[in-house]
Amino acid sequence: MPKAFPRLDQLLASLGYGTRREVRNMVDRGKVTVGGAVAESFDARIDPATVEVAGAPLDAPDGLVAVFHKPVGHVCSHTADEGPTIYDLLPKRWPLRNPTVTSVGRLDKDTSGILLLTDQGRLVQKWTSPKSQLEKVYEVTVDRPLEDRIIPVFASGTLVLESENKACLPATVEILDPLHARLVMMEGRYHQVRRMFASQGWHVEQLHRSRFGSYELDGLAPGEWRLLSPPWE
Questions:
Q1: Which residues are catalytic?
Q2: Model pTM score
Q3: What burial letters (b/e) apply to 65-101, b meaning 16+ CB within 10 Å?
Q4: 12-65 per-position pLDDT tens digit
Q5: Domains and CATH numbers, the chain
């Protein structure tokens, strides 16, 4: 059985264009077109692919997944209690969608790099599940010259961080030069990269995530994003 199309007002409200009353007013004012013609009724069932608002196609009507380059200084939170948030840098409609757009995991305020953003709950669960075994790659800058001894420690699968009782999964570290390393890991515990290096006597000065699974930034500048087309991995 083919999927039933949504009502126009429900569709626009779910995509963050406003409340049901607000989007009905938009329709009444002729701001919405369907198939190139001004929409006549807010309660008509409409193919989302045919709808435009103020002359622009709808934002990701089939679900939103985006790669985002998180800059330093912003938190992955929907509230401003901790300072500027990543949502300050994104289209205002995204957090108003239902379901709302959220980040897949988090990067702390002082960490930059790739984040995945989505309104697809199943993808959040899939990409954050320990069973996913998704690789995350971090570029790490430390405060003093690195030593080769950290390589077997991180790879051992026996490193237990302070205040925890479960060992970290094996991780691969490549020393690029005395103060820079590349870490490949499959976990995302609280401040894990910083705590792993701290456990061996190094302070992380800068931290950047360059890859999440198969996704990379591919030239995105800090604060920029790129929508991904389905099907998603």
A1: 108
A2: 0.92
A3: bbbbbbbeebbbbeeeeeeebbbebbeebbebbeeeb
A4: 999 999 999 999 999 999 999 999 999 999 999 999 999 999 999 999 999 999
A5: 8-57 (3.10.290.10), 65-129+215-227 (3.30.70.580), 135-212 (3.30.70.1560)
